Amino acid sequence: MSERLEKGIQALRDKMDARIASYFSSCVHCGLCAEACLFATESQDPIYTPIYKLEPMRKVWSREYSFWGKLGAMIGVTDNVTEEDFANWETLVYDSCTMCGRCSMVCPVGIDITYMIRKEREAFVAAGYTPEGLQAATERAINIGSPMGVTLKTLQATIRSVEKETGLTIPMDVAGADYMALFSSMEIVNFEEYIAGLARIFKAAGVSWTVSSKGFEATNSGIQIGDPEAAKTIVERVVSAAEELGVKSVISPECGHAFMAIRWEGPNLIGRQYPFKVIHILELLSELHENGSLQLEGMTDTPLTYHDPCQISRRGGVIQQPRDLLNSVASNFQEMSDGGDMNWCCGGGGGVSANERADEIRLQAFNIKKKQLAELDGVETIVTACANCRLMLEDGLEHYELSHEVTGLTELIAEHIKQ
Amino acid sequence: MNVAVRHGLIQILVVIACLLLFAGSPVHAQSSQDDKAPVSPIDVPNPGAELWNAVRERGGAEPTQQHPLTAIWEDVLQQQDTAAKSQARSADATSMINASGDQWRQLRREQLIPYGGALLLLSLAIVIGLSFVKRTAHYSESDMIIRRFKVPSLVGHWLMAGSMLFLAFTGLVLLFGRFTLLPLTGSDFFSAFASASKEGHDLFGPIFTFALIIFFFQFVSKNMLHYRDFVWMARLGGLFEKKPLKAGFFNFGEKTLFWLVIFFGIALSVSGFAILFQNLLPGRDLMLLATLVHAVSAILLICLVIGHIFMALSTKGTMDAITTGDVDANWAKADHSVWYEQMKEAGHIRKRIAHASDDAGKEIPVAEVSAEQTGAS
Amino acid sequence: MFTDFIDGPFWTFSVSVFAIGVIWRLISIIRLGVPGDLAVPREDGGAGGMRTILSRFMARPAVRKRALLIVVAGYMFHVGLFALLFFAQPHIDFYVDRFGVPAWAGMPRWLFILTAEIAFAGLIMAWLYRVMHPVTRMLSGIGEHTASWLVFFVMLTGCLALLEQYDSLRVLHFFLAELLLIYFPFSSLMHTFTFAFSRNYTGATMGRRGVDA
């Protein structure tokens, strides 16, 4: 057995907790998870069945925690995980799973497949079977500070541009501010409208906020690839920046997995609770709107729909806020079928967008979004709250030659601030 | 001869053979109410005959030529229509004794069992004989497939097929077991076995009816007769023609099978429920009629199914349709040309995926597939 | 003699294997523990766990639409089997006789038979789906098929013994039920108990995040 295989198997073994043991003990292979997975439904290929993606992990569980597996191992008939398994499953685990969590919502015995995929990816990292695109992104995140290679200089340039456009000052490194805003690289590079929108809204609502030059990047490739050490390093940057400035809250930007990383996984990665709150920008906007500090005016009658980013709604619990916000600025907001906590993923979450190898299957899976959009009545505008979803939606729409426009919810709200 | 044609023709032949045999048998004449005179038995080979004779000797009240009517039986026949008084309010409660029960018993023993058995054996013999005829494959395999049945249709078919086979087995035990099994197994085993068969038969009957209803709605639209089918019929299924005749999703033979299955299925279900809830029937004679209908329909349906199973197993590629739901594109082209063209036009012909899903899955490397998926990107 | 063995020692053995096996399996799961969650929860995990334990008894519309057959078949089988196990009069009589528990109200005979029909149809359809659907065909191994067929034969022999006149038929049913009890802890039939654990773990995690999983 090679060293990398040994490491991979050991990692799978180490991940085994009561949850996973209970999950594998409960699975009766009913196949319902396949009906919830966009890669499985759109390809009609059974190998994309979510629970099947956990076969390497199940093998270790079977060998070491089940009666027949242990008996088989003793007499030498139960297979152990092989390097071939790792090689074969690499594409299933990384290319055709966005960890969107739809499968976890429909399992009749309540198996959280997404949780296990997350753990299984850690073993793939340990064994060294990871897609190049994600490896490179993680390396950049650790060495440069952002998966896309965005440096402080890039941020400063963007901020200058935003300040010029809005005529507002973006407060940098202000100690004692109430809120510290984080951005995703994608926003800094592609969607500076988000930063501009934020500045306008906070000005109007009188929010005391700041941006740290030491910890502004919210995305976390370590979470996506399944490297806890890298993930921890990235979270620690933000935590120490926030602690240094002494802010009360940290604002997670319009990015799905960034919210997951900083809000739900972060404290567990660094092993302690934060001395500050973490709040998603949509939660904050909704709060400001509700308590009256953010006044909105004007209703757009453009038909529009909302694409729930999986990590924000289904896995993150921010479901009602975007709907309340949309309904206060749009008179023709239409819900997609399965919208809300069962919305279909854009196909690019969980690091799939950073993995070029997955492009073909990702675009095939996007067909489900095409079907969802086709059911709506005259909707040409998709609002979302995740820079990655936004990019993936644009890519998918272009691939299927659709003319829908995609926009961020924060920007939309910023357009309706009461003057 | 084109195989699809042969498929249809053989099924029709089996059906016709069944119908003819029954039409020629004295069953129908015997079921008449007017004819109360004892009937002379027909001398047919019967493995349980000796046993039967013993039973008759013991009973002594059997109105046969060897054993003339006793005085008691004469009395019964004369007085059976005499009205009696009873507190019981159930059907035929005031009838002292029902002589038609005895007629039914004779009919069952002397006509139904020997002729029915002969018919079943004949069907089997035909099928066994045909299985010696060498059949060449009627198409060459391709790597393109077409979805023929969705999973619910497959499940619908097999739920009906499975319950039907179980009912056929237990039903045959009940009808013939006494003459075939009892002598072999002895009465201790057979009585328990027959009781089990009876309880099992009663319980699975409604499941068959449930399956039949689902099956009917799943397949009825594809079994509506089309003008193409009349052409098929008129030209004897293209028996004497070189080019195969056009057929849609189902050909005329298959449609015939469908409607016969539905017909016999309904007959079996209605008569079966009548027997199960016999106390709710207005009279005992109706129950006897139900039992007769049940037995006759069952035997005919079993003969049909024997032919159907033979055709499915012996025609290359046909079992794929009903086990995986997918058929080879060339199979469709050869047997169901019209449907094939429709599928082709709609773009429903796709490449066969050969990997894990075809087998148990666990040990089969997914490498080739993954490589195929990613390599193409 | 065979009857005595099935009714006596083998029954004790199989019930012991079942009870000890199930408890041992459950303990071995719990013993592994779950890592604590340091993220500040939106709501209580315990409530989320309980909610998911109950809410997953209903299939979500998203999947109900796509896989109606297996959802319906699953309900038919599970509800039917549950009713048969605990509310069929012969079974209640058996529990009273063997465990000395006080009797409870059983189903009327007609409902008992109807329940059996529903459970049978459900089980057969579920198994057919298993072998017909490409996904379940790929996933299913010898464990699933053994469990399905063992349950089927237990139910079948039960229905063959319905007349309750032949001891041989009763013993056959009883024997198969004992085999099922022995096989139970070593198979995915354990989901009968572990489903609550799994739903609870998932429901608690998601509940803390404010998601009704």
Automatic annotation (TrEMBL), chain A:
It comes from Solemya velum gill symbiont. This is Fe-S oxidoreductase. It holds the Pfam family CCG. The keyword RNA-binding does not apply. Residues 18-47, 89-119 form the 4Fe-4S ferredoxin-type domain. One of its GO terms (molecular function) is 4 iron, 4 sulfur cluster binding. PROSITE patterns: 4FE4S_FER_1 (PS00198), 4FE4S_FER_2 (PS51379). Coiled coil: none annotated. InterPro entries: 4Fe4S_Fe-S-bd, 4Fe4S_Fe_S_CS, Cys_rich_dom, Helical_ferredxn.
From TrEMBL, chain B:
Keywords: Cell membrane, Electron transport, Heme, Iron, Membrane, Metal-binding, Oxidoreductase, Signal, Transmembrane, Transmembrane helix, Transport. One of its GO terms (molecular function) is metal ion binding. PROSITE patterns: PROKAR_LIPOPROTEIN (PS51257). Its EC number is 1.2.1.2. Residues 149-316 form the Cytochrome b561 bacterial/Ni-hydrogenase domain. It holds the Pfam family Ni_hydr_CYTB. Its cofactor is heme. SUPFAM superfamilies: Transmembrane di-heme cytochromes (SSF81342). The chain crosses the membrane at residues 112-133, 154-176, 203-220, 256-277, 289-313. The keyword Cell membrane applies. One of its GO terms (biological process) is anaerobic respiration. It comes from the Bacteria. It is found in: Cell membrane. Belongs to the formate dehydrogenase gamma subunit family. PANTHER family: FORMATE DEHYDROGENASE GAMMA SUBUNIT, FORMATE DEHYDROGENASE, NITRATE-INDUCIBLE, CYTOCHROME B556 FDN SUBUNIT. This is Formate dehydrogenase subunit gamma. It comes from Solemya velum gill symbiont. The gene is fdoI.
UniProtKB/TrEMBL annotation, chain C:
Keywords: Membrane, Transmembrane, Transmembrane helix. The chain crosses the membrane at residues 12-34, 67-89, 109-129, 141-163, 175-198. InterPro entries: NarG-like_sf. It comes from the Bacteria. This is Nitrate reductase gamma subunit. It comes from Solemya velum gill symbiont. The lineage of its organism: Bacteria, Pseudomonadati, Pseudomonadota, Gammaproteobacteria, sulfur-oxidizing symbionts.
